[in-house]
Amino acid sequence: MNSAQFTWFTYLFQAGFFKQPGALLMWQTILQSLATPSAASSTPPAQSSLFTPFFAYESGSTYPTSYALQGITGGNSSGDYIITGTKNLANGGNPAAQGLVYQGPINAANTSQGNGSGTWTVINVPNGINTINNPTVNSYTNTSIYGVNNLGSGLVNLVGSVSPANVTYDSAGFPAGTLGFYYDGPITTTPDKNNFQVFQPTFSDGSLANYTFIHSIDGGLAAGGYDSFPTRPDIHAFIYNPTASDSNKQKDIILPGSDNALTKTAYGIWHNQGSSYTIAGGVGLQYDASRKKNIGNQSEGLGSAYLLDYDSVTGLFSNYKTFNYPSTSSSKTLETHFEGIWYNGNGTYKLPATISPGPNGSLGAAATATITRDNLTGGFSNASWEILPLNYPSTGAVPVFTTNDSIFDKASVGAYTLSQGNFSDYAFLNAT
Length: 432
Hints:
Blueprint: H1 3-15, H2 23-31, E1 50-51, E2 67-74, E3 81-87, E4 98-104, E5 119-122, E6 140-152, E7 155-164, E8 179-186, E9 196-199, E10 211-218, E11 221-228, E12 232-240, E13 250-252, E14 263-273, E15 276-284, E16 286-288, E17 293-295, E18 303-311, E19 317-323, E20 335-338, E21 342-343, E22 348-356, E23 365-372, E24 384-387, E25 401-408, E26 411-417, E27 424-429
């Protein structure tokens, strides 16, 4: 991949592009130019805990044209999970993307609905909901579910993106605009429109964002990002409070010092206790629209992951810290990004991460960072890293690009691809 392609990849990576309807197919055109991935070692790790593909069928036993698994949390009983995602991406139909929720165990079983022995449910944002900040929009298409919080008693919070019904598409099936949504209710194919909020953020000058993605929800607050690429390409991270008044639902995330000027994302939010939350995401070089390039010291890499604490009562941010997967003499890490967050309740956070290039010679690799809370300072430790053993099951080949999109305890979901193949989504149970 040449330098121009990599700069483009970096922006898309930071923006969360790979979680948008049509994105995976568009990126395929770049992947075709890559070399065949290197083979795994002679003793590859066992694959018994990797289930791929893992998704709902489109019709009969047919997989959808494209799909994505994007969120995971614990289910209502031991060994069960709730997984969220999107199917039928950019297949030319309407809607081009449908939201999905899976309830059940992660296993190799199959039902008439799809992979796993659990239940798959299609959930789409219904029409008739006035978009906050833009009430002229009240009909929708292309639901994509990113984050989930299990409220118990059959109720969940869901967050994600949705497009206006009159959205236009480019030649790769990419929509020209997206909005964020929040849902509070049961998992059902016929959700009540009164349980939804659809939101379009505003920039500081009052103008509306073209692209909005709410990635994560926990403890009543959600986190996401917005931009207006290509005219205003810097991504702005924000917290969404569904119970606040419309004018106070959006709170932009403020980083300390010069990092606040960088492109920044928020992909995970975790409610610690009381008014304490921790946010995970990434920061990257500023994008200079006039020169159409990123600016900054590229010897330091193009993007770093971060953690940040937020107090919902005081509105203050604290304990900001960045993280980078360690470079080696043979492989310099240029991009590290946290895709979500999970906390064990006893001082340890697990962060699903995507790093680029991967230490296995791939364009990107799925990783997990383990970080502890310093009881004396209240800040965060350095990260210990694990590259997920996601070598392609049938051949042992190292995928060209792999993501770890969400994590709950020992379970992760994400996507990977071989150089000449389509993306395949996986559910992974880690034995460690």
